[in-house]
Amino acid sequence: xxxxxxxxxxxxxxxxxxxxxxxxxxxxxxxxxxxxxxxxxxxxxxxxxxxxxxxxxxxxxxxxxxxxxxxxxxxxxxxxxxxxxxxxxxxxxxxxxxxxxxxxxxxxxxxxxxxxxxxxxxxxxxxxxxxxxxxxxxxxxxxxxxxxxxxxxxxxxxxxxxxxxxxxxxxxxxxxxxxxxxxxxxxxxxxxxxxxxxxxxxxxxxxxxxxxxxxxxxxxxxxxxxxxxxxxxxxxxxxxxxxxxxxxxxxxxxxxxxxxxxxxx
Length: 265
Ligand code: ATP
Hints:
- By secondary structure, the chain is an alpha/beta fold.
- The chain has a single domain, classed as P-loop containing nucleotide triphosphate hydrolases (Rossmann fold, 3-Layer(aba) Sandwich), CATH 3.40.50.300.
- It is built from eleven helices and twelve strands.
- The strands form three sheets. It has a six-stranded mixed β-sheet with strand order 8-9-10-5-11-12, with helices on both faces.
- It is globular and about 45 Å long.
- The model is unreliable at 1-17 (pLDDT under 50).
- The structure holds adenosine-5'-triphosphate.
- Adenosine-5'-triphosphate binds next to strand 4 and helix 2.
């Protein structure tokens, strides 16, 4: 069964329904939706993750912050299954998915908006969005496209144009929209504000806040630590492949170490 929630939390767009799996909301007091235990991963001799443990309950937004090279992207890629892990395990909804292929994880509802957007420039915006729905039954795609267009009206206007003609900010919206077409139970957002002008950064964070307000479960990796922690329920500070600190978003924003190292305060 699905709940239909309103998008009215997004000040930029009209209210548009987007189906959110109801278990995501009901699970907030149950076992974690995502539990990562001692995750390690390497690129050859470079040990990128050295034992990361993390939890996310249904409906939570968890922020991953840290400097360049701390391991945020590698961690998200391990979750979506495109980066192999060398140790530890990943439990999703109680199931050990550590050895599951990326496409099967996507079918279970783990959908990623990757760093650098990675949209397919020569394909139309609509075809890019359709690619995000390749695991979904055909009959729901038209409705889901309209919902994504409701969230990102600029994509609706340009739906027939090649994605390569979009600005960086619009491509970011397309990357998020493509991930939403997979009907995520867990949405992975990798640096959604990277390289965007301040006004567009605010637009992208407004959309993330709207998704969160609807009860979507989100892991948000961001170098814009203040904005990410301000909207997150909890945050993890990564340093050279380890968790240096964890706490609620508010706690981390108030932490002296975090303030001087990541918030420039
Ligand atoms: P950024 O914001 O710069 O992407 P990050 O926190 O996401 O940083 P990762 O990209 O996960 O960090 O990088 C973690 C470590 O793994 C770094 O030491 C990085 O140099 C290394 N690394 C990442 N990708 C590769 C790769 N394809 N080949 C070799 N080393 C890599």
